[in-house]
Design a protein that fits this description.
Blueprint: H1 16-24, H2 41-46, H3 48-52, H4 58-64, E1 86-90, E2 94-98, E3 104-108, E4 115-118
Length: about 160
């Protein structure tokens, strides 16, 4: 079922793209960029406004509230293949899980930010076991250029 906006779009003299780019580069804008960073999954089942209007995802929520359009492009720039997400331990108040990125995290049962317990790969040195086949290959551009190595490449293992 298509989502119908609940209100008209804010009036403006700029396109959403022009406004976003200008705002991100500290240039003049006709108004601030109107966006939401997302909702918790529980909101889609618990908030009457979402349930009554068939809103089930963040993208549908953005359309429903007629926020400025924002698109994203994604690519696999980190570990590949990812770790299998698994629950390591459960308590009445928390879950201890291994994330897709290999982090061991403690997640409160009430949706909130998880606390990191340990890293899957504590260093970039070659190791055996969990790291096998998951590190960035030599010469492959590092996901955050300029952070390590030269010309944004992952440093060679020593």
């Amino acid at each position: 079922m298509p989502v119908t906006p609940c209100r008209p779009k804010w009036k403006s003299s700029m396109t959403d793209r022009e406004r976003f780019n200008n705002q991100m580069h500290y240039k003049p804008v006709d108004r601030c960029f109107n966006m939401e960073f997302g909702w918790w999954e529980e909101n889609f089942q618990q908030w009457d406004i979402f349930v009554k209007n068939g809103v089930t995802t963040n993208e549908e929520g953005d359309l429903f509230f007629n926020f400025d359009r924002i698109e994203k492009v994604s690519a696999k720039v980190w570990m590949h293949p990812v770790f299998t997400r698994e629950t390591v331990e459960e308590t009445p108040t928390t879950l201890i899980m291994r994330s897709e990125g290999g982090l061991l995290v403690e997640v409160p049962r009430m949706a909130t930010t998880p606390s990191r317990i340990s890293l899957a790969l504590p260093s970039r040195r070659p190791t055996t076991g969990a790291r096998e086949g998951r590190a960035l290959p030599r010469g492959r551009p590092h996901p955050r250029p300029g952070r390590r190595g030269s010309q944004g490449e992952a440093p060679p293992y020593s």
